[in-house]
Amino acid sequence: MLRGLEAGIIVALVAPLIGIFLVLRRYSLIVDTLSHVSLAGIAMGLLLGINPVITAIFVTLLCSLGIERLRTSKKIYGESALALFLSGSLAIAIILLSLAKGFNTNLFSYLFGSIVTVSQTDVYIIAALAALVLVVLYTFYKELVYITF
User: Fold this and answer.
1) DSSP assignment letter at 2
2) Each residue of 9-27: b (16+ CB within 10 Å) or e?
3) 70 vs 65: CA distance, rounded Å
4) Which helix (H) or strand (E) holds 25?
């Protein structure tokens, strides 16, 4: 339970710091899109036998850069880019899961798991990502406020 509490406190402290910029820029739907992308990353990790959290982070980072590149190129509207990645990543996740011979208990633990089952490695990953977010926010705070408003 203590690891779950640690993970919850870290996320509770960092998530609003990011969320305020996303909501004010009307990017709140990107969170839903990236959650579907992370499902594809988890499926890829389970299929390849790699830590699913690491593959989910890597795939989510790549797709978020792809979404932002599509949005800034003005070739496609932002909502259209989100819809493409949301439905496309969900389709890729289903294909990867079917290659793995269906749903297994590991996938269900990631989808519907409990916070009390967080491992110590997961807490370290969450803490490292939270520290990275805090450093980036501290470094680029003025620029983020300028872009947001």
Assistant:
1) H
2) ebeeebeeeeeeeeeeeeb
3) 9
4) none
Run of H or E including 23: helix 2-24
The C-alpha angle with vertex 96 and arms to 90 and 102, in degrees rounded to 5, equals 100
Q: pTM of the entire structure?
A: 0.74
Q: Identity (one letter) of the amino acid at 8?
A: G
Q: Render each residue's pLDDT in the chain as its tens digit; 149 residues.
A: 889 899 999 999 999 999 888 888 877 788 889 988 998 998 888 888 888 888 999 999 999 998 888 888 877 777 788 888 889 998 988 888 888 765 565 666 767 677 888 889 889 999 999 999 999 999 999 999 998 88
Task: Fill in the amino acid letter for 99.
Answer: L
CA 19/CA 41 separation, integer angstroms: 22
DSSP H or E run through 100: none
